[in-house]
Amino acid sequence: MLKFGIFDHLDSNGRPLGDFLEQRLRLIELIETAGFAGYHLAEHHSTPLGMAASPSVFLAAAFSRTERLRMGPLVYVLPLHHPLRLYEEICMLDQLSGGRLMLGVGRGGALIEHQRYGIEPKDAGALYHEAFAVLMHAFDSDTVDFDGRFFHYKDYLVQAKPLQRPHPPLWYGAPNAEAVAWAAPRAINVVSLGPAERARAISDRYRAEWSALGKPASELPSIGITRHIVVAATDDAAKRIARAAYPRWIEAMTFLWQRSQLDFTLKDIYPPDFDALENIGHGIAGSPATVRSYLQNLERDTGVTYVLCQMVFGDIGFDDAATSLGLFAREVMPAFG
Question: Where are the alpha helices (DSSP H) in the chain?
């Protein structure tokens, strides 16, 4: 069965920040009502691509506006966080939400942002792995003693635990199939960007690793992929909305690269206009029937079990986004069980 969640950069649409965030919280209420399986938000800094630079703060507000929807960062950029401070936030969020937090962790894909935070890109990988180890240690024990390259802790007394034990379900952006060897033994849910071929390699590898571990197929973690999706009454109406909204989103996506006069490193995944995005299969704008057909082909070609729909981006207005979410929930999702 294919499940659906929402992925959101919370990229700027030009509205005042307070209005922007309130509007997004209203949409999250609709996302819960529509029956999506989860809401995932990105963490970005020093760029209009991410106006919720503190995922924990935004999630606290979002949890207070919902009752059932599972939500979480995709991802907490661990090199930019004090791991024990983040651990405390995670425990608070999971308790406040009644155990609805999904814990996405990663190195962060835009190393150009790390530099502006004072983190050397060459250190990001090692920082990520150490911070992750500290988090896992805190989840598993009541005292943290840790002596690493970057982090040093002695007799840190763990005063809080999450509601979901030993920790909220983990999510990770898998860059390739090789990453599955780390994720599968830990039952980590994975998400891939870009080509269907890469997603197929990841899903095939995950199933093989999971079977080799002797785990039942019914307990397979989510294997996800992100896609831009707009739904309207007709194909033409949906394409008009997507074509109008995408330029602002891609401008935000490439903002720091352009400012630094560097070549955009994800141009093969995110081309300059929505028609090109559709042509390479990384998005769809259409009627419910068109979107259903696209997703049926995506499921067949990739083997993924979870699609993270990017349905609010760029200049999409509240009413168009609400209509798109509603049509998707009523006329697309039921076709997938």
Answer: 17-34, 55-64, 83-96, 111-116, 124-140, 180-183, 196-212, 235-259, 274-279, 288-302, 318-331
Tell me whether strands 306-310 and 3-8 are parallel, antiparallel or unpaired.
parallel
Residue 263 CB contacts under 8 Å (≥ 6 apart), including other chains: 257
Tokens of 251: 């401008």
Over the chain, what is the mean pLDDT? 97
Structure tokens at 331: 């006329």
Q: For residue 195, what are its two tokens?
A: 């080509």
Rg (CA), the chain: 19
Taking CA atoms, 61 is separated from 37, 97, 267, in Å, by 19, 10, 34
Alpha carbon separation from 271 to 157, 254, 279 (Å, rounded): 48, 10, 10
What range defines the domain where residue 317 resides?
Answer: 1-68+222-337
pTM: 0.97
Last residue of some domain: 128, 152, 170? 170
Q: Are 251 and 337 in a shared domain?
A: yes
The CATH number covering residue 51 comes to: 3.20.20.30
pLDDT in tens, 164-188: 999 999 999 998 999 999 999 999 9
Tell me the per-residue pLDDT of 267-313, one tens digit each, with 9 for 90 and over. 999 999 999 999 999 999 999 999 999 999 999 999 999 999 999 99
82 and 41 in a common domain:
no
Closest of 50, 46, 48, 47 to residue 74, by C-alpha: 50
Residue with tokens 């090789």: 178
Looking at the fold, whether 232 and 325 belong to one and the same domain comes out as: yes
